[in-house]
Amino acid sequence: MKGEANTNGDGAAPGPVTVDLRLSVNGRRHPITVDTRETLLDTLRERMDLTGTKKGCDHGQCGACTVLVGGRRVKSCLTLTVTVDDRDITTVEGLSADGVPHPLQAAFIENDALQCGYCTPGQLCSAVGMLAEVADGWPSAVTPGLDGEVDLSKLADEEIRERMSGNLCRCGAYPGIVAAIGQVAR
């Protein structure tokens, strides 16, 4: 009957469908069983206790949940966990190495690129991914194509702003964010 919940014939709603995965997060392997409807954001925060990744809008609009999957930036609130089985995932907790901050983390502090800090983990992961995209010659609205070898030291502030436009900061720390990314690129 239209409008009624799908049932198993006994009147009960069907249970969740789960799958066993091997997640590689921040260089460590994690066997985990997840609901096939579960987002990577919820898996990281609620099940793996990696709370650096933030739940902002939960609609892919703010970028606070940005992580790296296979070195490319993704919004974890829009990514189903089942789609990242056996792929390398890096969260903000995985950017530093042996207690030494990633150069972007140090530059964010040096350039006062944060205020409340809620968006900072997503900004950092997005900046790491963005610099890799530029180095690989990916185009943007500012530069239609980056043929040949890319000189990151010539990355203009306009280009940085365009490429980081999917990450919002309610506090307005954009000048510091752009300066920090530019410092690392140069």
Automatic annotation (TrEMBL):
Keywords: Iron, Metal-binding, Oxidoreductase. Gene3D superfamilies: 3.10.20.30, [2Fe-2S]-binding domain. The keyword Flavoprotein does not apply. Residues 19-95 form the 2Fe-2S ferredoxin-type domain. PROSITE patterns: 2FE2S_FER_1, 2FE2S_FER_2. It comes from the Bacteria. Transmembrane segments: none annotated. Pfam families: Fer2, Fer2_2. InterPro entries: 2Fe-2S-bd, 2Fe-2S-bd_dom_sf, 2Fe-2S_ferredoxin-like_sf, 2Fe-2S_ferredoxin-type, 2Fe2S_fd_BS, Aldehyde_Oxdr_Iron-Sulfur, Beta-grasp_dom_sf. PANTHER family: OXIDOREDUCTASE WITH IRON-SULFUR SUBUNIT, OXIDOREDUCTASE, IRON-SULPHUR BINDING SUBUNIT-RELATED-RELATED. This is (2Fe-2S)-binding protein. It comes from Sphaerisporangium corydalis.
